[in-house]
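Could you show me some protein's one-letter sequence and the numbers that encode its backbone in two labelled lines?

___
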Amino acid sequence: MRKLWFFIVFTCVVSAQKKVSKPFDSVGYYFEQIQYHKKANNYRNCLNYAQKAINYAQKKSDEKALGDSYFNLGLIYFDLKKNEDALDAFVRSIAFYSNLAPSREQALCYYYLGLTYIEQNNTALAENNLNKAQAIYQKLKIHSAIEMINLQRAIVYKRMGRNNQAQGILEKIVSLTDTVHNRKIVPEALYHLGMLEKEKKRNNLALNYMTRALNQSEGQAGLQAKVLLALSEIYEKNANLELSHAYLKRYVKLKEKNDIQYLQKIEPVDFDSFKNAEKLKHAEQLERENESQTKAKNFAKLISILAIALISILSLLSLSLYKNNILRNESNKLLQEKNRELEIAKERAENATKARSEFLSTVSHELRTPLNAINGITHLLIEDNPKESQIEYLNSLQFSGNYLLTFINDILEINRIESENVPVENIQCAFHTQLKNIQNSFKEIAQENNNIFEIDIDKSIPEHLICDPTKLSQIIINLVNNALKFTKNGHVRLSTHLEEIQDKTIKIKFQVADNGIGIPEDKQHEIFESFSQGSIEINRKYGGTGLGLAIVKRLVELLGGTITLNSKVGLGTTFTFILPFQVSETLIEEKKTFETEEPVETVVEGKRILLVEDNKINQMITKKMLENRGMSCRILDNGEDSVTLLRKEPNSYDLVLMDVHLPGINGTIATQQIREFNTQIPIIALTAISLNENREMLLSYGMTEVLTKPFEPEKFYKIIADHLL
C-alpha cells in the first residue's frame, strides 16, 4: 500500500513539472504573472511580482533583466497614476539600458517616460524623451511606432500653444490607412482635432471630429469619457441642451465605471504597505553600504593626508584662476541677458507674423461673399442685353471684380505658403508635355502685346519625372505672365538645361528671359518681397498685386531650389532657378479625355437643380444664372431640409449645389448624411476656400466637385454640364 501511494505522488509531481513552461524562480515567469494579474485588475500582486523580478535580477547581476524589471514596475505605477514613482522606476530602467545596445524596450521606456512628463505637464522633458524614443526606433528601423510618438508630440505641441504644428500632425494621423495599430491612435487624434476646433469656436467641425472619435474609440474607456464630456460642452455652446444633457449623462455613467475599476486595482493600504516594505529594504541596503563605506573611510584618511598636500599646491593655482573666473562669469551674465532680449524679440516677431497672417486670411475670406455678388450681378446684367452706353461701365465693373479676385487669391496663396500649410507632392509628370501645354495656354496673352513666346527644352532631360507638377507650373506661369506683361513687341523665352545627374536624381536649370522694360538695379534686392513692383509708376501703368514674385520665390525654396535675376533697364530681365527632380522608373499612361460635342446649353436645358444656400443675394444670383441656361432651381437655406427632401424625393433632382457653411449642420455633414442613402446624385460644393480648407478635405465628405466663390460663369456652367452628362 505504501509503495502504491509513493508511486501516485511521484507521478503527480513529474506530471506537474512537465506542465510548467518556465522555472518558478525566473524573471520571465514573474513577468508572466504580472501580465496575468493586470488582466485580473489585481495590482497588489503585480507589485509583488515586479519586486520579486528585481530581487532575482539583482541576485544574478543581470543588467538587461534589471532594466526590464524596473520598466515593468514603472508601467504598473503609470497605470496606478503614481507619476512620481513611475518616473523613478523608468529612470532606473534607463540607467541599466544605457549600458546595453539600443533595443525596443529602451525606446518604449523613453516613450513612457515622455507620457509621464506629459501627465505632469512638463512639456520640455516630455518632448526630449519622445525624441529619444523616436531616434532609437529609427535606428532599429521600427517604423510602425513613429505615428504613436507623433500623436504624443502633437499633444505636447498643443499644450505649448503651437496649435498649427499640432493640427498638421493630427491631420496626417487621421488620414492613415486602417490597420489594427492605427485604430488605437486615430480616435485620440480625432479627439484632439475636435478640441482644437472647439477652441477656435468652430463647433460644427468640432462635432464632426468628436463624433468620429466616439465611433472609433471602442474599448478605450478613458478616451470615450473625455469625448462624451467634450460633446456635451459643444452641444451646450450650440444651445442644443437636450443632446448636451444626454452626452453628459453618458459621461457621468462611464466616469463612475472607470473610477470604480481604478479603485479596484489596489487598496490604498496595500499600496502604502508595499511602499513601506520597499523603503525598509532600501534602508537595509543603505545600512550595508554604510558598513562598507566605514571600512573605506579608514583607507580614505591616509589618502586625505596625501590629498591635503596636493590641495595646498592646487590652491595657489586656483587663486590665480579666481579673478579670471569672475571676469568670465560677468561676461556670461551679459551674454545671457542679450540672449533673453533676442528671444523676446523673436517671440514678438513670430506673434506679429501670425497675427498678420490670420488677419489677412480672415479679411480675404470674408471679401469673397460680397465679391461673388458683385461678379454674379455684373455677369447677369451683361447677359441681359444692356444699353450700349452701359456696356462700357459693366465691362469696367467686371474687370475690377476679376482684378480684386486675383488680388485676394494671391493674398491667400502667400499666407498659405508662409503658414507652412503647403504639402509637397511627389508624383509622376510628363515634363516636356507640361511645358508645351504652358506655352499653348499663353498664345492669346502673348498676342495682346504683340510678343513672341518660345520654349527651348533640353532634349537630354527625361520626359518622365517625379515632382510636384502643380507648383512647378505655378512658378513658370507667374514668371512667364510677368515677362509678357512687361514686354511689348518683343520676345519671351523659356529655356531648360540639364545641369547635373546623380544616380536617379537630376537638377534642371530654368530660365525665363524677356527684352522688356527691365528692373532698376536699386529695386532688384526687394523685387521678391510681398507687394513690391519696382515703383509706383509701374504699378499704375501695368497693374498687378506685387505678390507673384514673392509666391514664386517661396515655392522655389519649398521645392528645394534657389532663384536669381539679372536685369538691365530697357534691355530686359532674366530669371534663373534650379530645381532637383527624381527620374521616374515607369512610364506615365496617357489619359484620353472625351468632351461632348453638344454645347453646354443643350446638355443642361431642362435639368432640375437643388440649391442649398443661406445667403439671400447668392440665392438670387445663382438661381438667375441657372434659369438663364434653361435649368429649373429649387432653393433650401439649411442642410437639414436638404437631407430630408432628398430622402423623400430621391429622383426629383439631377444635381445639388451645396454651400459648405450653413446654419445648423454644415454642408459637409449634410453631404455625408445624403451619401448614406444616395451615392449617385452629383453634389457640387460652393465655398470660399480659406487657409484651413482644401479641395481634398471637401471631397472626402462625399462631394463630387468643388466650386470656389466667386466662381467664373463659364467654369460654373461647364462643371455643371460635365456632371449632368
Observations:
- Residues 5 and 11 are 10 Å apart (CA to CA).
